[in-house]
């Protein structure tokens, strides 16, 4: 099923290339190359990431990871996971020098279309971010995701401070109709 995907998809000058076993060293170096202010986990262990990539932890029937490539440069990646439980989640990371150019919005839009097209059995896609990650929250809204949850002090920052976590989701029917079904907060 997932192995039948196209290796490279082009959209608006951006390509999305699957992360492969041979990318282990570059992928690990990318993750270790800079701080990720809105991700928990602290310092990235390059050897550990390289081992996980080589072992297939970023691509199998339940996980797909794609490089985000602009003008031949790998600017980030988008990783979809939990593909086998009916409600996939995703992680998006862009190098600091590539942020603020609309790449996040393009990547999330591409990912939603890719997942709904590839996996007809899924009804929704979810994602979370810290409450202070205003850029990612804007990406969610621009891509048709709806705020569905607000978890107070649930995201540990690298400085030990707890941040609120915001949960978003998009329904297949909303994606197909380009509409938004509001959350029934009173229900």
Question: How would you explain this protein's 3D organization?
Answer:
With 187 residues, the chain is of the alpha+beta class. The chain has a single domain (2-177), classed as 3-Layer(aba) Sandwich (Aminopeptidase), CATH 3.40.630.30. 26% of the residues lie in helices and 32% in strands. The strands form two sheets. It has a five-stranded antiparallel sheet with strand order 1-2-3-4-5, covered by helices on one side. The chain has a three-stranded antiparallel sheet with strand order 6-8-7. A hairpin with a 2-residue loop joins strand 3 (63-70) and strand 4 (73-81). The radius of gyration is 16 Å and the shape is globular. The termini are far apart.
Sequence-ordered SSE layout with sheet pairings:
Blueprint: E1 9-11, E2 14-18, H1 24-32, H2 46-54, E3 63-70, E4 73-81, E5 89-94, H3 103-118, E6 124-130, H4 134-142, E7 146-156, E8 162-171, H5 172-177
Antiparallel strand pairs: 1-2, 2-3, 3-4, 4-5, 6-8, 7-8
Helix pairs in contact: 1-2
